[in-house]
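Write out this protein's structure.
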Amino acid sequence: MKRALLAASLFAFTAAFTAAPAYAQATAKTVATVNGKAIPASRADLLLAGQVAQGQPNTPELQAAVREELVRREVLSQEAAKKGVGKKPEVLNQLELARQGVLIGAYLNDFATNLKFSDADVQKEYDSIRATLGEKEYKARHILVEQETEAMSIIDKIKKGEKFEELAKASKDPGSKDRGGDLGWANKTTYVPAFSAALVKLEKGKYTEAPVQSNFGWHVIQLDDMRELKAPGLDEVKPQLVQGMRQRAVEKHILELRGKAKVE
């Protein structure tokens, strides 16, 4: 899981940062010279592109801010070099980690960019996700407690006529307890497997007559309503599907390289 998250974060960062084109239309090769050392325009382009990729409009003010940022970095870098900061072991290690991060990000972005998926591949991915989601959405309520005996007591109270919504005030789920346990409309994949399995077996208006255990605790579940799931069409979600396919391919590639590596 951690490896997958690492790959996803690296890929997402790199894709967002490097996908943007250069926006600083600098005619000179440098944007400034600090104490005789030139700052290349390409560095300003890169920093500016990163800001634009994050939603900043490309304005003269932003370009000026980027230039000033680079000047300050250069001033401080030169001063740090004079003081020998760059020779400290901990600094050298941080610089190496930063270098590796940039190199890895660029490599994974190149790898992901060069991946090609056919229309049939994307259709298969879409069909797979649709099958996983199922054909229905459910409007459910639940009451979450820590002990099975608590859940059984709640079920007994419901059988005796007490309102589910009132009993839900004792729920350990802060997100739904004040709404009578209402979880809103969702498909079955929204919930953990044990919860989902119990939910889809219920008839409209019924509740689980035996407590349902999950990693969160014990649930009493009530199904208020169900309806046909209206999923978006393939054309609407194709970019997200391709992005997900690229990300999984990157994760697989990382694991393959790790498996081939000789680690002593």
